[in-house]
Amino acid sequence: MTAQEMTIIIALISAAISFVALLRNTNKDSKEEITNQTKQLTEISTNIGNISREIKEVKREVKDFRNEMNETRDMAVRAEESAKSAHHRIDELIKGNVGG
Predict the structure, then answer these.
(1) For position 98, what pLDDT does the model report?
(2) Phi, psi at residue 23, to the nearest 5°?
(3) Which pLDDT tens digit goes with each residue over 8-53?
(4) Which pLDDT score is estimated for 68?
(5) How many angstroms separate the CA atoms of 87 and 96, rounded?
């Protein structure tokens, strides 16, 4: 073997070793990237679950608030009707005292 042939063989072996190392690192990076993406997706999924629970809580609170508002409105209507009835009775009493 000549020196040139030895140089070429060494260069080819070095290139092959570099290529194998590149493949291993690429595969390792891919695994790490998949692991990182899995962690991120898990965090996103967890956050979406939390947001969903909070939305349900807000909906329940809004529903409770609406019920309270309806009860308050009903009480106000009854109070207004009672006040009108009382004014009517007072007017009748005044008319009875003035007329009688």
Answers:
(1) 65
(2) -60, -45
(3) 888 888 888 888 777 777 767 677 777 888 899 899 989 998 999 9
(4) 97
(5) 14
Rounded Cα distance, 82 and 80, in Å: 5
Q: What's the token pair of residue 9?
A: 């063989």
Determine the residue type at 51: I
45: tokens are 């999924």
DSSP string, 31-74: HHHHHHHHHHHHHHHHHHHHHHHHHHHHHHHHHHHHHHHHHHHH
Assigned token pair, 33: 């990237």
* CB within 8 Å of 9: residues ≥ 6 apart: 1
Single pTM value for the model = 0.52
User: Tokens 């939390």 sit at which residue?
Assistant: 50
Question: For 2, phi and psi rounded to 5 degrees?
Answer: -90, 170
Output the average pLDDT for the chain. Answer: 86
